[in-house]
Amino acid sequence: MKVAVTYENGQIFQHFGHTAFFKVYNVENGAVTDSKIVDTNGNGHGALARFLLENEIEVLICGGIGGGAQMALAEAGIRLYGGVSGSADAAVEALLNNSLAYNPEVKCNHHGEGHEHHENCGDHGCGSHSCGH
């Protein structure tokens, strides 16, 4: 199984549509066998779902993610664990231990504290992925 995590400096990057890197984990027999950091090459929102599909990703762990991206992942057959924060490695370990805390109702949640670079929803087409704001 291949698991991808939106990634920045060891942590889960909190905006799926703007992630520059995924950390991809190969999992066999319930354990991580290896991992690597993969550059998304500037792909955004819809292209990222295709990027994951082309890289044979089966599971995505991320922070905030909009409705359009969620639908694209569902159509690609990629299981989503959204609304997760903290260490990327720890999140994958929690997934493998069936203890990953995630939010199945996650929406694009980048408008709160700690995301000062998203002052205006329109700056990144939030309306196009059903942010809810």
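[next item in queue]
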Amino acid sequence: MRNAMLAALALAAATVAGSSPAAAYDYPYCLQGRGIGIPGECAYSTYAQCMASASGRALYCNVNPRVAFGPPQQRRVRPHWEY
């Protein structure tokens, strides 16, 4: 019984350690406020989405500093071929 509990605990720890919230940092708006901190919960692609989540929770929205002050995004340019 103890081995089964240890195996379940190890599986849960591996799942939590393996999950990566890094993709959420790429969204341009963050939910911020008391208890969330800065940069906050950066999972909103529009300001309206962020404000809808902040509504009634005494939170506010701000621009994601990782997006605003990070390296500029590389734009893929299509080659223009003349015929």
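[queue empty]
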